Amino acid sequence: MKILVPTKRVPDTDQRIRVAADGLSIDTSMLPFVVNPFDAIALEEAVRISEESSQPVEVVAVGVGGDEYEEQLRTALAMGAERALLVETDRPVDPWNVARLLVKVVERESPNLIIMGKQAVDDDANQAGQFLAALLDWPQATFASKVELVEGGLRVDRETDAGIETVRVSLPAVVTTDLRLNEPRYASLPSIMRAKKKTIERLSCEELGLTIEPRIEIVAMEGTSSDRQCERVDSVDELIDRLRNVAEVI
Amino acid sequence: MNHGYALFAPILADTSEWTREVFGNIPPAAKAAFYAIAAAALACFAYGVYRRARLWRIGQPSDGSKSFVKSTLAALPELLFQSRLRQNRVPGRTLATSAHLLLFSGFVVLTIGTALIAVEHVLAGMLGRDANDAVFHKGVYYAVFEITLDAFGLVFLTGCGLLAFRRWRMPGSIAQRSLDWGVLAALLMIGLSGYATEGARIIREQTVRPEFSFVGLAVARSLQTAGIDQAGAVTLHFVLWWLHAALALGLIAAAPYTRLLHVIAGAKNLASAHRPLGTMDLISMEQVEETGLVGVGQIEHFTRRQLLQLDACVSCGRCQDVCPAHEAGKPLSPRDVVQDVRGVMNLHGTSELPELVGGVVSHETLWSCTTCSACVDVCPLGVSPLDLITDMRRFAIGEGALRGPAAAALQKTQRSGNPWGLPPQERFAWADGLGVPTVAENPQFDVLYWVGCAAAYDRRVRKIARSVVRLLQIAEVNFAVLGPEERCTGESARRMGEEFLFQEVAAANVEVLGAAGVKKILTHCPHCLNSFRSDYPQMGGRYEVVHHSEFLAELIAEGRLKIDAEARKKLAPGKVTYHDPCYLARVQNVTAAPRDVLQQTLGGDGELVEMPRHGRATACCGAGGGRMWFDDTPDQRIGVGRIEEVLATGAKTVAVACPFCLTMVSDGVAASESDVAVRDIAELLIEVIDAKP
């Protein structure tokens, strides 16, 4: 069995994000990047399946981006992926084009299962997984909070606004992960060192036979003000009073 | 009865006849049999020790190749006077400690006595003396010898009796194995049969001045009352002598196969160089690249010293009694860790070797430890359950066995240089408006104030740093801070087992500190303090490091900080208790300075009350060893018992001297819905300082 885990490199969520001078992008100087937390959950799930399976399971991590992506792919390898693929591009790619690129990767790799984060925490688009399933014409189970391998496919608990929905999908399939699926393991420095022996394969868009046709154009980016003032109130009554009469929100 | 006569009798009387026959009543054939059995017993003993030593040697060579003889001689006073046992008082262990001291001192004196008899016998044989013509076992020496040995026999038996009583009455607190009862019974029987033999000998031999052997004489009188005459005593003595000899030789033969092994393993361990509390072994990157392994995943990855320590452990359970994780109901008993690992060592060489990390010792057990070092500090035999735990943590973390908030804290340290993951650019925000000079602004500083991550990012803890800075400014200390260039010391990462993250941040810190020409570091964080003192020299960073309690106490003593009596009255703290941080009080042995600062702060207007566990014997707040980053519900928190202790003092304020303790005790007090104030000693001090120049 082969599991493909597409990932995205995103800014560390603990950092203060600032808009760059061009007003179209974020200021990435001094900004640490991480594997999108939902994709880390996807990686953990793939590695868990591989560890628990009696059959050999190969976990392949995929990234779309430039040289700087190597650090995140190393983390993916340290978490337990056997191989990593980097689809090289020099500009941001929107979810539709990511899905198109991934279709080409799927054609090369022919995985049995794709597990990826339900969304990336930078643009929160929540589209790539669904686009990919549609383009491949595979079944999809999005927002997974539990994944079980069962006879003939997967049994997946989905987190919906109304509650947990349990679905069964046949393989191959696309699963997108929600927050409560698992707690990703820590990629320690020794495991990152060991992961240095694993390979990162690089593919260009040309090699994949694809030109990126952007569908989305960013026309402006604005920061939100975050100078909140915190104050401690002495009682619930005072809080209600302040919310009603000072903040006038209730 | 004339006591005066008895006392001076040895000086007054003619002493030449004071002696007794050695090996009396033992025919040559029996003597030969005795020697043969003794030789067999010693061989059995030697094989038993060899069998264990072979197991110890499956471990990694330990560093420190001090000569065994030299180090044992150096440790002899400590061993003979049982210093570690006496010094490390554990509540509820007074009886056990006293009993062990009695048994041990009795045992040592009786063993020396027996050895002297053997020397006498051999000398007499070499000089061709007659059985009744002693070489030195006569006269005043004989009197002192017999009195001493009879007295210490009683001491020995009292110790055995107390231990048997304890074992019988308090079965829950100590490990119960039938073999342990057997050892104790054998010791008791050896003591009793010794006296019985002596009693029978006195009747048989009509020994002169039998009152020197006062217990033996009492036994003889009882035997005579029971109708044993001189003729009957011959057989009785022979039988008792053999019983005594067989028991003693049997116990020698059995010793390495029972918990008596601790006498050898424990002594050898105590004689080897002690590693100071708070220190850890450095792992080299080359070593890991070579083996692909970090820490201990299999029994033979432990050092020989550690494997030796497994055999030194007698399961007394002192470590478990003082373990804060065990107290809080976590699945960790330091004693069980040692014994479980020992169980794996015993299976070495068999095919059924169980998984060590995550198997015999569960991950939950490993992550429950706060590295407070109490277990190491109380162990009378110098065993370190903590080292076993941190070594296995290193392995577990290398295998990716850590998840959740604690794993996130490590990732954040790696990314942002602090466990909160907050932007490094904001590290200096705590000092806003205080005019704190950075090393660039004041390159001629005397003292570098190391702020630490907690005070840099946690809004509550910032107040400690702000108080310290104001105190430094009032006292006109020429200081500077690193500002945004400071990053986590890596202390927490190292104790969680992430050695290389520690080395990465430590190397960066050493470089920054070196570039700034730092010689003296002041910190309010005991974890940073210990890391600079114990970890950084391994990374090439050597500095004079002081805790703010020590530094502030000095500034007050020098008159550079003056107390304002009016302010003291205004502070009106009432009863104040002080919670000793583990890494300050136990690991770095700083207990007087913070109390000094508090006394000065309170003056006559407050009262410092101590909790039952204070000073070196303090109880952990629950934040050490990376536990700070684990999410526990309030009732599961390590340190719950400590909060109860704080509240039981009735103090209005609990003073602390560590940012982690501040957070944990504040949370604990809040969870108890108490309004006890939790303040750092510097926060209290600044309130009573006369700020006028």
By helix and strand content of chain A, what is the structural category?
A: alpha/beta
Low-confidence stretches of chain B: none
Total DSSP helices of chain A: 7
- Approximate shape of chain B: elongated
Could you give me the name of the CATH homologous superfamily of chain A?
A: HUPs
CATH topological fold name of the largest domain in chain B: Fumarate Reductase Cytochrome B subunit
The proportion of residues in beta strands of chain B is under 5%
Distance between the termini of chain A: 55 Å
Walkthrough of the structure:
The complex is a heterodimer of chains A (250) and B (693). The longest helix of chain A is centred in the N-terminal third of the chain and has 16 residues. Chain A is globular, with a radius of gyration of 21 Å. Chain A has one domain: HUPs (Rossmann fold, 3-Layer(aba) Sandwich). Chain A has seven helices and eleven strands. By secondary structure, chain A is an alpha/beta fold. Chain B has 693 residues and is mostly helical. Chain B is built from 31 helices and eight strands. Chain B has a four-stranded parallel sheet. In chain B, strand 3, helix 24 and strand 4 form a beta-alpha-beta unit. In chain B, helix 10 crosses helix 12 and helix 21 packs across helix 31. Chain B is elongated. Chain B starts with a helix and ends in a 6-residue tail after the last helix. Chains A and B meet through helix 5 of A and helix 11, helix 19 and helix 23 of B.
Question: Which properties best describe this structure?
Answer:
heterodimer; A: 250 residues; Rossmann fold; 9-stranded mixed sheet; two-stranded antiparallel ribbon; 7 helices; B: 693 residues; mainly alpha; Fumarate Reductase Cytochrome B subunit; Fumarate Reductase Iron-sulfur Protein, Chain B, domain 2; 4-stranded parallel sheet; 31 helices; 56% helix
